[in-house]
Design a protein that fits this description.
Oligomer: heterodimer
Number of helices of chain B: 6
GO molecular function (chain B): 2 iron, 2 sulfur cluster binding; electron transfer activity; flavin adenine dinucleotide binding; metal ion binding; oxidoreductase activity
Function (chain B): Responsible for channeling the electrons from the oxidation of dihydroorotate from the FMN redox center in the PyrD type B subunit to the ultimate electron acceptor NAD(+).
Distance between the termini of chain B: 27 Å
Largest sheet of chain A: 8 strands, parallel
CATH topology of chain A: TIM Barrel
CATH superfamily of the largest domain in chain B: Nucleotide-binding domain of ferredoxin-NADP reductase (FNR) module
Strand content of chain A: 15-25%
Number of helices of chain A: 8
Pfam family, one (chain B): NAD_binding_1
Radius of gyration of chain B: 18 Å
Shape of chain A: globular
CATH architecture of chain A: Alpha-Beta Barrel
Protein name (chain B): Dihydroorotate dehydrogenase B (NAD(+)), electron transfer subunit
CATH topology of the largest domain in chain B: Rossmann fold
Strand order of the largest sheet of chain A: 3-16-15-10-9-8-7-4
Strand content of chain B: 25-35%
CATH class of chain A: Alpha Beta
CATH superfamily of chain A: Aldolase class I
Family (chain B): Belongs to the PyrK family.
Radius of gyration of chain A: 18 Å
């Protein structure tokens, strides 16, 4: 039985990755998960300089999901290279660094800085809904998506994954723009912008007023967008959005994802990623699937 | 770093000890043996629509029996805490812990300490009172009805403040300190942010060391998600900005190092 997948030339032992921002750089979760068992660890977004992030409260629970507005707090690329990459190098898993920035130059600075680091792939966050500059501003206009993809690709030594926002009218337009810009793969979806109001105090629950919604409530939206995008582009897709268990992961793969990222579920069960790896194997045994690649995009009409 | 455990704890007892305040006693395999006063556990809901664990402080730790007591407020209808309040003897509940760092008890050695709790910040002060050998005075601020009074009184002198004046000094914990003419060399406190802010100012004015246990909305509870940060006066070594993680570096901080 083969569970390994190939993401634009990088082989992952299985399709299970961590969703950026929910897993730090793996250190805290390594007490609960054997990182060696994961296909890849996708780190929390890192910028050229340290970012303090947003004021608190930064999270709120909602029915079947949560909102976050952490605001990409990160220690900056220098400390990240000194501390986080060496930590992950101790494990037999792929390292995917998520990159954030306020300007094209910021993104490129981080990407260049990572050129000689032992990093397998770069995930470019052009879809964070919680920061004023950068983030989603690059991800809601096809021209801007293509332009930044182009610039990043010029300086990147590792394969590039553009991470797309669902907060657009047609995600396939953004996907095609990223493909035109030369991206090697796509990640989708980032969080859906939401809001929660405390009716007793009549105030916003999050200090940032709005936050990105994640969790099982958005899973069907993510499955639909992954399916549509898989029909529209040739590059491989990493599917994410409310994956709570192996069944959700399989669903995402059938919709067209080559790999999947698990995010919010880590908060509900810190060892969930390893369970999803096992669950996918169980599914393959049950349905006599010899190679996981047989499942990618294998959904068909009734 | 001490180890953390994820367990299905067994409910030994559950009782409403004041209006909306519940006392839950849990049998654990490992967590109680490792736990310290001032730490907390993440308590997970069985409702799949509630994804995030509820951080609840440890009110009592019995290492011999391996039990933990959680005293918590039910925050409303259909909340996670309401679900926990319905747990009965022999039910199980998934918990993760012990989390965070405890109170630095040794700092009180040879000193006279104030142990101060406000509202639902009172419970963790009980375990602290039990472990602390130093000369201590407990000052507790309640909204109205009192709870855990017998347990606290077994540990020494207790002073009470109530918002409605129904018991002790009418007002807050600082009103009780002033009304009773109390003084100390060091403060340990847990309670609502306005109380902690007032105690930070009081401690600065009296040149006292003051340890405060802070609270914030959390997601992972283990230091990865950066939801529960607090502003710090100095740059933090982990975050590389002026933020510390309450769940990881806290929840107890020297009041001088945090901005409230």
């Amino acid at each position: 039985m083969n569970t390994s997948v190939n993401l634009c030339g990088v082989t992952l032992k299985n399709p299970v990755m961590t969703a950026s921002g929910t897993f730090g750089s793996g250190e805290e979760f390594s007490e609960f998960v054997d990182l060696n068992k994961l296909g890849a660890v996708v780190t929390k977004g890192v910028a050229n300089v340290p970012w303090p992030g947003n004021p608190t409260p930064r999270v709120a629970e909602v029915y079947g999901g949560m909102l976050n507005a952490v605001g990409l707090q990160n220690p900056g690329i220098d400390l990240f290279c000194k501390r986080d990459i060496p930590f992950l190098k101790k494990y037999d898993t792929r390292i995917i660094v998520n990159v954030c920035g306020r300007s094209t130059a910021d993104y490129c600075e981080v990407v260049e800085r990572l050129a000689d680091e032992p990093v397998d792939m770069l995930e470019i966050n052009i879809s964070c809904p919680n920061v004023k500059e950068g983030g989603i501003a690059f991800g809601q206009d096809p021209k801007a998506v293509e332009a930044i993809t182009n610039e990043v690709k010029k300086v990147a030594k590792q394969p590039v994954i553009m991470k797309l926002s669902p907060n657009v009218t047609d995600i396939t337009e953004m996907a095609k723009a990223a493909e035109a810009g030369g991206t090697d793969a796509l990640s989708l979806i980032n969080t859906i912008t939401g809001m929660k109001i405390d009716i007793n105090r009549r105030c916003f629950v999050l200090a940032n007023k709005t936050g990105g919604m994640s969790g099982p409530a958005i899973h069907p939206v993510a499955v639909r967008m992954v399916y549509q995008t898989a029909q529209a582009v040739k590059v491989p897709i990493i599917g994410m959005g409310g994956i709570m268990n192996a069944e959700d992961a399989i669903e995402m793969i059938l919709a067209g994802a080559t790999a999947v990222s698990v995010g919010t579920a880590n908060f509900t069960d810190p060892s969930v990623t390893e369970k999803i790896v096992t669950g996918i194997e169980d599914y393959m045994r049950k349905f006599q699937v010899n190679d996981i690649k047989e499942l990618v995009g294998a959904v068909h009409e009734r | 770093m001490a180890e953390k455990y994820q367990e299905n704890a067994i409910v030994l007892e559950q009782k409403e000890i004041a209006s909306g305040i519940f006392r839950l006693v849990l049998q654990t395999k490992e967590i109680a043996a490792q736990a310290k006063a001032g730490q907390f556990v993440s308590v997970y809901s069985k409702d799949p629509s509630k994804l995030l664990p509820r951080p609840i402080s440890l009110c009592e730790i019995n290492k011999t029996k391996g039990t933990l007591t959680l005293v918590y407020r039910v925050t409303g209808e259909n909340t996670g805490t309401e679900e926990f309040s319905r747990l009965q003897k022999d039910d199980t509940v998934r918990i993760l812990g012990p989390l965070g760092n405890g109170f630095p008890i040794d700092a009180a050695e040879g000193k006279k300490a104030f142990l101060i709790g406000g509202g639902i910040g009172i419970p963790p002060i009980l375990q602290l009172a039990r472990e602390m050998k130093a000369d201590k005075q407990m000052v507790l601020g309640f909204r109205d009805s009192l709870f855990l009074m017998d347990e606290f009184q077994a540990e020494g002198q207790v002073y009470v403040a109530t918002e409605d004046g129904s018991a002790g000094t009418k007002g807050n914990v600082l009103d009780a300190i002033r009304a009773n003419g109390l003084s100390a060399d060091i403060i340990y406190a847990c309670g609502p942010t306005p109380m902690l802010r007032a105690l930070k100012a009081y401690a600065e004015e009296h040149e006292m060391v003051c340890y405060i246990s802070m609270e914030e909305r959390m997601a992972c509870g283990i230091g990865a998600c950066l939801a529960c940060v607090c502003k710090t006066t100095d740059k933090d070594a982990h975050s590389n900005v002026n933020n510390k993680r309450i769940c990881k570096e806290g929840p107890v901080f020297d009041a001088r190092e945090v901005e409230l």
